[in-house]
């Protein structure tokens, strides 16, 4: 029986008998500033509450015990909120720090741009891995997201935003790891970091920056090349086009229909007010389309296709049905006119009901991330990060995509960021490229890269083994962003890749990975 077959058998047992385990939400008092001496009103080092989710009941479990149960439905897991504080030196001495003869391993998911619950619910396979290897599994929340706000409601003041850097984030995670090692009495524990998309980049950065502490990493769809490979950033919209073009039997026609819809809109605008009025009626906009908001309409419609590509899984996800690219492509194909198909896709993505209009004001279209804007403080934080160091100059071009010419150059990004933040934005870009390597990863070791062919960010990841000490699982066919880390579902096509991941993680833990 293969290891993956073992996991599948356990899933079957779970379906029959049910299971429960303790996933708990903890609050950790994290440093606000790891590189300065920021103090609070008491003149002591300033801290904030960072949240993390922990599952530790697999710890010390024997991976060969076939009676072990694995949780199947991640969305039914309850979270108990507890509070904790950093250990003092005396408390560290009192822990005993005795090691057993079993594996001592911590799996850490390095949370990205959102509340930590989102990453927990979308990473069910890590629970399987933790169960198999008897590891403590932790999902850590990224500063400035969710409820981990270093300065509370004032976190997004311009005087506080400069504390939102990748340097501070990876230091947060390293500080938390130090704490976890001692609370579980295993100071020599091996640490494996995990993440998908930006969180996958963070998992990689942990291994880059702290190789003496981080044993290895599994980075799924991590766009690490964006730090220095300008060409890779231009591939997002061509990849989205390719994803739609590859829809069985109708893909080529769908691409041409979308192009035709945008051609129609551009032709109509040449007729001035009458043309814009026709566009308003045709696209069911709440506001009259004009030269001032025509580009907003183009971005809103274009971004619907991009975001649907990022939500394209073989199961329902975030309120969307399974295989949303295929469904939205069928909408375009079945529509009576190309522009009607364009509206139908927008209505589908934004959840508009029959006869609802497209609100060109309420739907955000102007932000640093031109693949889709987020609302609220989460959007503010991500905007700042993309302006400050994680640059994203991603525009579309009619010559290479099915979308209109909507350039987004470094100059456009600079102009937007300078207007949004009264700060010297883009000033950390060169440092970020030097500090976190970008595509120059050949000196790294013990990192597993995975990339799905249906991930629009595929071109920004590491898809080939650059050295014997890094393993890239190539182009995962049929895989969207982070699918390999999600809970296994029959027919998701990830069995072979998860089997390889399971084996490679074991090699990193026992020291037989090529770098050892």
Task: Name the descriptors.
516 residues, alpha/beta, Rossmann fold, Four Helix Bundle (Hemerythrin (Met), subunit A), 2 domains, 9-stranded mixed β-sheet, 17 helices, globular, disordered N terminus
What is the gist of this entry?
This protein has 516 residues and is an alpha/beta fold. 39% of the residues lie in helices and 11% in strands.
Task: Provide the fold topology.
Layout: H1 3-17, E1 23-31, E2 47-55, E3 79-83, H2 89-93, E4 105-110, H3 116-121, H4 124-133, E5 136-140, H5 166-183, E6 190-196, H6 198-209, E7 216-220, H7 230-233, H8 236-245, H9 251-269, H10 272-283, H11 294-310, H12 324-334, H13 338-350, H14 376-388, H15 410-420, H16 429-436, E8 447-452, E9 470-476, H17 495-510
Parallel strand pairs: 1-3, 4-5, 4-6, 6-7, 7-8, 8-9
Antiparallel strand pairs: 1-2, 2-5
Helix pairs in contact: 5-6, 8-9, 9-10, 9-12, 9-13, 11-13, 12-13
Question: Please, how many domains?
Answer: 2
Query: On the 0-100 scale, what is the average pLDDT?
Result: 85
For this structure, what is the CATH class of the largest domain?
A: Alpha Beta
How would you describe the oligomerization state of the chains in this entry? single chain
Give helix and strand order, one letter per element, not per position.
Answer: HEEEHEHHEHEHEHHHHHHHHHHEEH
The CATH topology annotation of the largest domain reads as: Rossmann fold
| Number of E-state strands | 9
Give the helix proportion (percent range): 25-40%
Count helical runs. 17
The assigned CATH architecture of the largest domain is 3-Layer(aba) Sandwich
User: Beta-sheet strand percentage?
Assistant: 5-15%
N- to C-terminal distance: 28 Å
Category by helix and strand content: alpha/beta
Low-confidence stretches: 1-20, 61-78, 85-101
Radius of gyration: 24 Å
């Amino acid at each position: 029986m293969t290891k993956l077959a073992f996991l599948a058998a356990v899933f079957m047992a779970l379906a029959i008998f049910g299971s429960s385990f303790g996933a708990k939400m903890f609050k950790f008092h994290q440093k606000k500033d790891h590189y300065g001496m920021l103090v609070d009103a008491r003149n002591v080092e300033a801290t904030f509450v960072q949240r993390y989710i922990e599952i530790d009941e697999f710890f010390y479990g024997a991976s060969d015990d076939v009676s072990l149960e694995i949780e199947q439905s991640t969305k039914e897991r309850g979270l108990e909120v507890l509070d904790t504080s950093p250990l003092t030196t005396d408390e560290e001495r009192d822990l005993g720090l005795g090691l057993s003869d079993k594996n001592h391993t911590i799996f850490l998911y390095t949370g990205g741009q959102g509340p930590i619950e989102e990453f927990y619910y979308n990473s069910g396979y890590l629970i399987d891995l933790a169960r198999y290897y008897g590891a403590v599994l932790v999902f850590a929340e990224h500063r400035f997201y969710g409820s981990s706000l270093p300065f509370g409601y004032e976190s997004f003041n311009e005087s506080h935003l400069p504390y939102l850097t990748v340097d501070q984030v990876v230091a947060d995670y390293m500080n938390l790891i130090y704490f976890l090692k001692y609370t579980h009495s295993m100071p020599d524990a091996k640490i494996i970091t995990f993440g998908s998309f930006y969180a996958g980049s963070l998992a990689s950065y942990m291994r880059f920056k702290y190789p003496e502490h981080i044993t290895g990493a599994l980075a799924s769809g991590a766009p690490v090349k964006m730090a220095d490979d300008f060409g890779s950033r231009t591939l997002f919209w061509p990849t989205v086009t390719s994803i739609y073009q590859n829809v069985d039997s109708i893909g080529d026609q769908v691409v041409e229909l979308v192009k035709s819809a945008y051609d129609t809109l551009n032709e109509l605008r040449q007729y001035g007010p009458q043309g814009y009025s026709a566009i308003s009626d045709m696209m069911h906009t709440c506001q009259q389309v004009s030269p001032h908001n025509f580009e907003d309409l183009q971005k809103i419609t274009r971004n619907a296709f991009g975001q649907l590509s990022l939500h394209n899984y073989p199961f329902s996800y975030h309120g969307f049905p399974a295989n949303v690219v295929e469904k939205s492509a069928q909408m375009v194909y079945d529509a009576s006119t190309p522009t009607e198909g364009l509206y139908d896709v927008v209505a589908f993505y934004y959840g508009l009901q029959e006869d609802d209009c497209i609100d060109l004001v309420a739907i955000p279209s102007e932000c640093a991330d031109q693949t889709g804007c987020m609302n609220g403080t989460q959007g503010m934080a991500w905007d700042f990060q993309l302006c400050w160091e994680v640059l994203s100059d991603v525009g579309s071009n009619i010559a290479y995509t099915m979308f209109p010419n909507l350039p987004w150059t470094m100059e456009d990004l600079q102009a937007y960021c300078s207007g949004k933040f009264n700060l010297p934005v883009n000033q950390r870009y060169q440092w970020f490229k030097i500090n976190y390597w970008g595509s120059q990863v050949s000196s790294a070791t013990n990192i597993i890269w995975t990339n799905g062919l249906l991930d629009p960010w595929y071109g920004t990841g590491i898809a080939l083994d650059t050295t014997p000490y890094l393993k890239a699982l190539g182009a995962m066919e049929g895989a969207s962003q982070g699918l390999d880390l999600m809970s296994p579902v029959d027919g998701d096509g990830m069995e072979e890749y998860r089997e390889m991941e399971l084996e490679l993680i074991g090699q990193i833990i026992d020291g037989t990975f090529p770098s050892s």
